[in-house]
Amino acid sequence: MQSHKEMHMSTLSNAKDGRGLRSGSQKMSPPAQKTLKNTYIATGLGLLLAAFTGSFMSSPLLAGLGVAATIASIIGMFVVMFIALYRAEKPDGLFWYLGFTSLMGAFIGGAVNLAAMSNPGAVFASVGGTAILFIALSAYTITTKRDLNHWGGFLFVALLGLVITSLINIFLQSPLVMLVGSAIGTVIFSMFIMYDTSRIVNGYETSYVRGSLNMFLNIINLFIDLLQLALMFWADD
User: Using CA atoms, how far apart are residues 20 and 42, in angstroms rounded to an integer?
Assistant: First the structure.
């Protein structure tokens, strides 16, 4: 189930370039402060909606949908995501973004609920780890005001490699590849949190809907990679 990573590639390729502030040279501008505040609020709403819709899903329910329905649901999520990106600066952009987060929550909810039933400790540890990393990395980036816009090219290539490796591993079913991929994914999406925060702080990203969509995907991907690592390590105990 790699659609969440592929979706992040789509949002990265749609990122707008702009003229940012010089790193650490001045205070964050009022527009940037407003965008950052709204981004965090909308990201929080998106995560709550995803958790709410995901709580109603179960793996047997998703399995009963069949391959065709699963593919259709993935395509549907991509469509809603692209509409959210296209309408990001319009009044209805927030609606489409929240619709996307609801669909994503429903899509991954079955797997997360199954993990919670079999190993609740791994899920709680992953949630806690995601929260700690997000807060620490965001605080560091906001405090230093480092301009990390130049990370974009590297992160796109790294994410592309991660997606390709994950797709290949669907056929290989290698635990080692999954372990390494999840570890690398944790690093990549931690860097994405810093990158997307920096873009807002330094004035490159001016749409809180786009910023929220990126941050939501960062957090979801980071959580899933941490959860995969936790489940593998817990299984070895």
Answer: 23
Q: Could you tell me the two tokens for 32?
A: 């940037």
DSSP 8-state code for residue 55: T
For the chain, where are the alpha helices, taking DSSP H only?
3-13, 30-54, 59-63, 66-86, 93-118, 120-144, 152-172, 175-201, 208-236
pLDDT at position 60 = 55
What is the Cα Rg of the chain in Å?
18
Nearest CA to 127 among 214, 48, 8, 222? 222
Burial of 132 (0-12, 13-18, 19+ CB in 10 A): exposed
Q: What is the pLDDT of residue 22?
A: 47
For the chain, the domains span 3-236
How far apart CA 163 and CA 153 sit, in angstroms, is: 16
Helix (H) or strand (E) holding 24: none
Separation of alpha carbons 71 and 77, rounded Å: 10
Show the tokens assigned to 156: 């796109």
pLDDT for the residue 13: 61
Q: Give yes or no for a contact between 175 and 236, defined as CB atoms under 8 angstroms apart.
A: no
Instruction: State the Cα–Cα distance between residues 15 and 195, nearest whole angstrom.
Output: 11
Q: What is the pLDDT of residue 66?
A: 60
pLDDT one-digit tens code per residue, 192-224: 999 999 999 999 999 999 999 999 999 999 999
* Nearest alpha carbon to residue 12 among 107, 141, 131, 151: 151
Triad 35, 221, 23: Cα angle to 5° = 40
Contact 186, 220 (CB under 8 A): no
